[in-house]
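User: Hi! I'm working on a homework problem where we have to compare a predicted structure to a textbook description. Could you give me the structure for the chain below?
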Amino acid sequence: MRGESAYWLAWSQISGVGPVLLQRLQQHFGNLETAWKASASDLRTVEGFGFQTLEKVVQQRTRLNPQQLLTQHQQVNPNFWTPADTEYPQLLREIPSPPPLLYYRGEVDLQENSGQKPLVGIVGTRQPTEYGIKWTRQISTALAKNGFTVVSGMAEGIDTESHSAAMKAGGRTIAVVGTGVDVIYPHKNRDLYKEILTSGIVISEYPSKTAPNRTHFPRRNRIIAGLSRAVLVMEAPIKSGALITATYANEFCRDVYALPGRVDDQPSQGCLKLISQGAGIINQQLSELLTMLGAIPQIDVEIPLVKSAPLPNLSAELQQVIDTLSIDALSFDFIVQKTGMNAGLVSSSLLQLELMGLVSQLPGMRYQKL
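Assistant: Happy to help. Predicted structure tokens:
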């Protein structure tokens, strides 16, 4: 397993090759070892490999030995996953830009990684009001007591309150940071950081000793959204980074909920905007939110298995599209990326499958298998 991980590491060291391009390489060649050994002409057939990127790859990979690189890297960064590792978080595999390396520190819970234990992201402003703090504490406590793991970014304000409340309630929490996992930022959260290491984990796509950088935090937000089944935005001005997380959540087909506030309160403007765009509303009845998130268990009734009817004979294109779909709604762009087909062909295939009663279209150009 670590053999393939060496190639995820090596590719990530090539300038100009980011998470999206790495995902395309993996899909095109089947694995990154094959991609690493591919000729320049073969690499040119991968979408996104322009002349400049190709030139960088040809120049830089001759100087890198993946296995030696992995050995050296592990000496400084002993704990990390790549998509080649079975422990890599399952929900992150589903996004278009999964981190090629995900560093961690703390107590790992493999049920979280496999998706068996639900994760909910809570984000918001660094300068919350008493109203925002109150509701963040109440909701984080309720989630923790109902078996959810709370995910946030360990920033000041809403992030700090969500982590702290979840742990005080006896639950687990995950901090996704924009630094190395061994760097505490902001430094005033050093006690919170130490507590998280005993009641959850700190994770990052940046290696050990990486200092804070303003460009890292928006990228960090996609990991919060990718890990989470749903994202709750507590208080957020119009230009809040929390709205970036909500945008990623929508892109990844995650549910988004927002806490409403007064129309003349600046910290609530971002939340009101999300609600106007269709986000769920967090209200006083927390039981409703927990029900929506699946926290309240259903009555355990034995349901007889129903043998599903066999699929009709489908053309190769229709079969490829329906094999990509699942009972969870997927965005149109994600389906196009996964199938590798052009958008027009995917669109016509989805329409045919919908007419056959095999696929359902949901708002926002999302599709699910029936």
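For your comparison, note the following. Residues 130-145 form the longest helix (16 residues). Residues 296-309 have pLDDT under 50 and may be disordered. Good luck with the assignment!
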